[in-house]
Design a protein that fits this description.
By secondary structure, this protein is mainly α. The protein has 27 helices and 10 strands. It has a 4-stranded mixed β-sheet. Strands 1-4 form a two-stranded antiparallel ribbon. Residues 1-135 are annotated as: Disordered.
Length: 713
């Protein structure tokens, strides 16, 4: 080593030896001088030249600062680290040496934050023009932001939009919700009673669920029709007819909202855009043919079907547009999907049974295709996951268990009441012709009056006017040629539409010999379905998915056109064009559904004990009677359902001459204690002439209570 270079502190050292010195403690080297602080020592070694690597100078500068000693070095001002060097690159005192005392510095220098030869950094001249630092949000601010993000989230807007649209499209259901029911007060009264009974009995005596207070003294009477058991939690709130009517109207509106949201979720999960998903949701919930079913809540309550399918597809990471994406799998969605499917099944087998068979067939086909693709046709590993498999097994078993438990009472009813069994002749009565799929019900505001002649040509218009909407037909047809779905998927959807239409025709398609009849004869429970036209539900869903693909492709094309504009933002006409299909589907779903006032409950039914019989008795008269009993739930002989039990038919026949000795003795053998005649319903009936006759000779008493006459047996 050149000793002169070391003593004089010049930059004559060999650059290749930079960093070769070994130091203990913090050292700062400038030129050839080494400054130590504390117990730092410098050993003989090559001295770093001023022209040495910038990284060494920066490291030395950091070490010097950490030790409390600031040493000037060459180019230190360029680093902006607060050290200033002299022009010739030498540092510190003239002899080039530092000491511990120098490292500490004077009190005045320490107070000013600088050592000998150091000066304060100058402020950045452009600092005032820089961006302001982001403020740190408070806890309240973070909460407000989180709420704001939630409120503008897609699914929040979808839920709110579905609810608002349901209120508007079912209006005036909520105008007088305590006194009116949509379409008529016959079947809706029955279903309002069903919700009230299930909620009441599950709170008081769950073991008697299937042995309802109506149809006395029949057993398993709650299974005489679809039960809407899934709405039992709503039935636990409130008592009496007004509460039952209010509950029904609220659930009626919510069922439309759920149908819209479910179909929207399914279309979005499969790959449709927001507007395309909205078209599918609105078309599914407000198809014109469903207006004829406004009095059948178990048919309107179909939103669990597309919602469950959307959840299952989401959990399995599958999309119609993007295929199988293993990274998007999530077993929690699979559990949720099976639970929603089980809940949908609990609302009734009329809609739930085809859904159950669809799920079973889908699981079977998917398993076979998965096996073939992985092991035979294209042996490529497609990850599935043990937890996902467990979720499917557990969820599928839960769904099957719910189905079996719900089916047991219906098998008991079929065994006790052979007249409840359907035949192909019954199916033929309700099977619609092909023209029914282009005919709207009378409740359609747009097409109702125009299709009056077409409806008159149908044998049973309430179950044969099956128009899903001409707009939906047109959009689905366009979706066959212009869509975001792949061609084979469009063909699958088209095949599904054709198959479901053929099945919905029942025995009208070549007598159903190779279509509906095999299902009726061989699938368990299928012979309990009276109206094949309700399979139009699946046709509507598939048409909605085809339409969603077309609308999504159209919206994509609009965005491409907008990107060519300056600024790249769609003009008002382009925006309106994307919303036009949705607006047309909404308009076609407008209704003129009547909302009649339900006959008020006679005051005597709030106090009289059962078992009792209310006269007149018939299918239409008995359904409001059932809702009248929701105050006390006393046993009542009256009842209305999908079939008339033989014993109830005998009661109606025998009591045509009531009060007489034969009818009194017959009712006593059944255990009936009281008979109530409602005066304002006696016009044109046999009781109009006998209601005021003396009854002492029959061993009974007669009492006037309000507008009713009570006979004590």
């Amino acid at each position: 080593m050149d000793k002169a270079a070391t003593d004089k502190g010049t930059g004559g050292a060999d650059p290749s030896a930079a960093g070769g010195g070994k130091a203990t403690g913090a050292t700062s080297t400038a030129g050839g001088s080494t400054s130590t602080a504390g117990d730092s020592t410098a050993k003989d070694g090559p001295t770093v030249a001023p022209t040495s690597a910038a990284g060494t100078a920066a490291e030395d500068s950091k070490a010097s600062t950490a030790a409390g000693n600031t040493t000037a070095g060459k180019d230190s001002t360029a680093t902006g680290d607060g050290t200033a060097g002299v022009k010739d690159g030498t540092a510190g005192p003239k002899d080039g040496k530092g000491s511990a005392d120098d490292a500490k510095g004077s009190k005045e220098d320490a107070k000013d934050g600088k050592a000998a030869g150091e000066k304060k950094p100058e402020p950045e001249r452009w600092e005032a023009f820089g961006p302001a630092p982001a403020p740190v949000p408070t806890r309240v601010g973070r909460a407000v932001r989180a709420v704001g993000r939630l409120l503008v989230h897609e699914w929040t807007l979808a839920v709110v939009g579905a609810l608002a649209l349901a209120v508007a499209m079912t209006w005036p259901t909520l105008r007088y919700p305590l006194h009116t029911l949509p379409q008529d007060y016959w079947d809706p009264s029955l279903q309002a009673w069903q919700m009230a009974w299930s909620g009441h009995i599950l709170l008081t005596n769950p073991g008697q669920l299937w042995h309802a207070n109506a149809f006395f003294p029949e057993s398993w009477s709650f299974a005489f029709s679809d039960t809407l058991l899934g709405y039992a939690p709503a039935g636990m709130i409130g008592t009496g007819p007004e509460a039952a009517i209010l509950r029904y109207n609220i659930v009626f509106v919510l069922a439309h909202a759920l149908a819209t949201l479910g179909a929207y979720a399914l279309a979005r999960q499969l790959g449709a855009g927001r507007i395309g998903g909205a078209v599918a949701g609105v078309g599914f919930a407000y198809a014109p043919w469903l207006l004829a079913q406004a009095g059948h809540l178990h048919v309107i309550s179909n939103g669990g079907i597309p919602l469950a399918l959307a959840m299952l597809a989401r959990g399995h990471g599958w999309s119609l547009r993007y295929g199988y994406r293993p990274r998007r799998r999530h077993e929690a969605w699979v559990y949720a999907g099976w639970l929603v499917a089980a809940w949908q099944l609990s609302l009734g087998f009329g809609i739930g049974l085809p859904f159950a068979y669809f799920l079973g067939g889908t699981v079977l086909v998917t398993a076979v295709v998965w096996f073939l693709r992985r092991y035979l046709i294209r042996p490529v590993k497609r990850p599935f996951g043990t937890r996902l498999l467990v979720a499917d097994v557990v969820g599928g078993l839960l769904f099957a268990a719910v189905g079996v438990l719900l089916a047991i009472p219906y098998f008991m009813v079929a065994e006790l009441h052979p007249n409840a069994e359907r035949t192909l002749g019954d199916i033929d009565i309700y099977s619609p012709p092909l023209s029914g799929f282009f005919t709207a019900p009378g409740e359609s505001r747009i097409w109702g009056a125009l299709h009056e002649g077409a409806r008159a040509a149908l044998p049973w218009p309430p179950e044969m006017t099956l128009l899903p909407g001409f707009v939906l037909y047109a959009l689905a047809a366009g979706g066959l040629f212009f869509s975001v779905w792949r061609l084979r998927h469009r063909l699958y959807l088209l095949a599904g539409v054709l198959v479901t239409v053929i099945l919905a025709m029942g025995t009208r398609f070549f007598d159903g010999t190779y279509t509906y009849a095999p299902l009726f004869e061989h699938l368990p429970g299928w012979n309990g379905l009276r109206t094949p036209g309700r399979l139009m539900l699946w046709t509507t869903l598939l048409l909605g998915l085809l339409a969603a693909g077309a609308v999504t492709a159209f919206c994509q094309r609009v965005r491409e056109l907008a990107a060519q504009r300056i600024p790249s933002w769609p003009g008002p006409w382009l925006r309106l064009a994307t919303l036009l299909p949705l607006l047309l589907v909404i308009v076609e779903g407008l209704n003129t559904t009547p909302h009649p006032v339900v006959p008020p409950q006679p005051a005597v039914l709030r106090t009289v004990d059962g078992p009792l019989l209310v006269l007149p008795s018939s299918q239409n008269h008995d359904q409001p009677v059932m809702i009248w009993t929701t105050t006390k739930f006393q046993d009542v002989v009256n009842g209305g359902s999908g079939f008339t039990p033989a014993q109830l038919a005998d009661v109606r026949r025998v009591t045509l001459n009531f009060p007489d000795q034969v009818s009194v003795d017959y009712l006593r053998t059944l255990g009936v204690n009281n008979v109530v005649l409602v005066r304002d319903q006696l016009a044109g009936t046999p009781w109009e002439a006998t209601v005021d006759m003396p009854v002492e000779q029959f061993g009974i008493t007669r009492e006037e209570i309000g507008d009713t006459v009570v006979y004590r047996l």
